[in-house]
From TrEMBL:
Species of origin: Sulfolobus tengchongensis
Active site, renumbered: C248 (nucleophile)
Name of the molecule in the record: UDP-glucose 6-dehydrogenase
Lineage: Archaea, Thermoproteota, Thermoprotei, Sulfolobales, Sulfolobaceae
Gene3D superfamilies for this protein: Cytochrome c1, transmembrane anchor, C-terminal, NAD(P)-binding Rossmann-like Domain
Amino-acid positions noted as binding substrate in the UniProt annotation, renumbered to this chain: F139, L140, K141, E142, K191, F237, L238, N239, A240, G241, G245, K308
Enzyme Commission code(s) on record: 1.1.1.22
Pathway: Nucleotide-sugar biosynthesis; UDP-alpha-D-glucuronate biosynthesis; UDP-alpha-D-glucuronate from UDP-alpha-D-glucose: step 1/1
Signal peptide span: none
Matches recorded under InterPro entries: 6-PGluconate_DH-like_C_sf (IPR008927), NAD(P)-bd_dom_sf (IPR036291), UDP-Glc/GDP-Man (IPR017476), UDP-Glc/GDP-Man_DH_C (IPR014027), UDP-Glc/GDP-Man_DH_C_sf (IPR036220), UDP-Glc/GDP-Man_DH_dimer (IPR014026), UDP-Glc/GDP-Man_DH_N (IPR001732), UDPglc_DH_bac (IPR028357)
UniProt KW Iron-sulfur keyword: no
SUPFAM superfamilies: 6-phosphogluconate dehydrogenase C-terminal domain-like, NAD(P)-binding Rossmann-fold domains, UDP-glucose/GDP-mannose dehydrogenase C-terminal domain
Catalytic activity: UDP-alpha-D-glucose + 2 NAD(+) + H2O = UDP-alpha-D-glucuronate + 2 NADH + 3 H(+)
Length: 405
């Protein structure tokens, strides 16, 4: 089939390369000219494990262009553009602008909304375009995006027409994943309910971690492991740390809570999860202050700028928030990340960072930060992601999230 993908970010490019690998011809459209040029010169504009190889392997089936006209005669066009939150509310202009551009191409293409949009958005697009629109929310995780697309836990397809839904089911049948048919609004809502629930789980264990820090001989990791063995709870998303970041949880929880308020409802648990999460960077900085005293003039190194390991995505990264807080307090900053680069922040090597700093805050759980206890001797350390073995460190110079004295 000929398939269009509009918006070539993490979701769009991964979807494009996986579908190309299944033998489809893909036209990828983006308004970002630099991105298109980079893709056409064979480079992936961000880091995602295995993606460069998959794009290289299928380059004869992938076209990257700014021209919506190239989408003509596509059987499906997926909208995978960004849907950020601006001033606490979802910003839908990218989606509507993509839909407007699509209104000019042939009417037979099925439009599939993969971007995360608040309930009711896709139906508005359907009315605007006067043609079949399906909602097929994306659940991939950066860092394992290709496998998540090839074998998702489930596929949600929301729509009005049985025939069109069946058409999209056939496209995804290679995944052998369970497919759930829903209304358009339910499909949109499922995505928000899923992300909100996961955000709540993270903030929940982080609050338990706060309490464990005040209790001698108490380690939140032991608590998390034990409660996670209860099938009703499950072990996933119970890692206490510096909270959630990235391009999804922060913006999606903000969007759905504000959407709920507009409808006269409050999502109080989700609002509390956001509040708990917002406190995490302050907690890391306070722990460092408790160890090292006043931060002014001290050199602190932040290990990890990506919002999580195996990605170079720094959107809503807790490492960056910590750097800003440390700078406000007059500390000198050293920073290291295996993949992420940030304008205005110099990245040193891991060894340099450790050698030339007095205090170290671990803000991303990269594997590279495991087993470095020996190098950290004589340094003040805050383990914000529980990657270190505290038994190998001097407890007078070491603090970790969720670890009581
Ligand atoms: N990143 C994730 O892990 C993830 C997971 C699940 C769902 N989502 C959702 O998928 C959507 C895309 O996320 P992403 O992380 O891939 O975004 P991204 O920011 O990495 O990429 C979005 C792309 O869309 C392009 N774009 C914006 N407006 C456009 C337009 N009118 N026409 C063509 N291109 C346009 C941008 O230039 C950019 O390249 C969002 O709604 C997000 O919430 C993301």
């Amino acid at each position: 089939m000929k398939i269009g993908i509009v918006g070539l970010g993490y979701v769009g490019l991964v979807t494009a390369s996986v579908l190309a690998d299944r033998g489809h011809y893909i036209v990828g459209v983006d308004i970002d000219e630099m991105k298109i040029n980079e893709l056409n010169s064979g480079r992936i504009p961000f880091y995602e494990p295995g993606l460069q190889e998959l794009v290289d392997k299928n380059k004869d089936k992938l076209i990257f262009t700014k021209d919506y006209g190239e989408l003509l005669d596509s059987q499906f066009v997926f909208i995978t553009v960004s849907t950020p939150t601006v001033n606490g509310k979802i910003y839908l202009d990218n989606v509507f602008s993509a839909a407007t551009s699509l209104s000019k191409i042939n009417k037979d293409s099925v439009i599939v909304i993969k971007s995360t949009v608040i309930p009711g958005t896709s139906r508005k697009i359907k009315k605007m375009l006067n043609r079949e629109v399906l909602v097929n929310p994306e659940f991939l995780k950066e860092g394992s995006a290709i496998m998540d697309t090839i074998k998702p836990d489930r596929i949600i397809i929301g729509g009005d027409s049985e025939e069109t839904i069946k058409f999209l089911e056939d496209l995804w049948s290679f995944t052998n994943s369970p497919i759930i048919r829903t209304s358009m609004e339910e499909a949109e809502m499922i995505k928000y309910a899923a992300n909100s629930f996961l955000a709540v789980k993270i903030s929940f264990i982080n609050e338990i971690a706060n309490l464990c820090e005040k209790i001698p001989n108490c380690d939140v990791n032991v608590i998390a492991k034990a409660i996670g063995m209860d099938k009703r709870i499950s072990p996933y998303f119970l890692n206490a740390g510096l909270g959630f970041g990235g391009s999804c949880f922060p913006k999606d929880t903000a969007a759905i809570t504000s959407f709920a308020r507009d409808l006269g409802e409050r999502l109080k648990i989700v609002e509390a999860a956001i509040e708990v999460n917002n406190e995490r960077p302050f907690r890391a900085v306070k722990m460092m202050e408790e160890l090292i005293g006043e931060l002014k003039g001290k050199t602190i190194c932040v290990l990890g700028l990506a919002f999580k390991p195996n990605t170079d995505d720094t959107r809503e990264s807790v490492g960056l928030k910590i750097i800003r807080l440390l700078q406000e307090k007059g500390a000198n900053i050293l920073a290291y990340d295996p993949k992420a680069k940030v304008k205005d922040i110099k990245i040193s090597s891991l060894d340099e960072c450790i050698q030339y700093s007095q205090g170290i805050i671990i803000s991303t759980e990269w594997d590279e930060f495991r087993g470095i206890e020996e190098k950290l001797r004589d340094k003040y350390v805050v383990d914000g992601r529980r990657v270190l073995n505290y038994k190998l460190l001097d407890r007078n110079k070491f603090r970790a999230i969720g670890l009581g004295e």
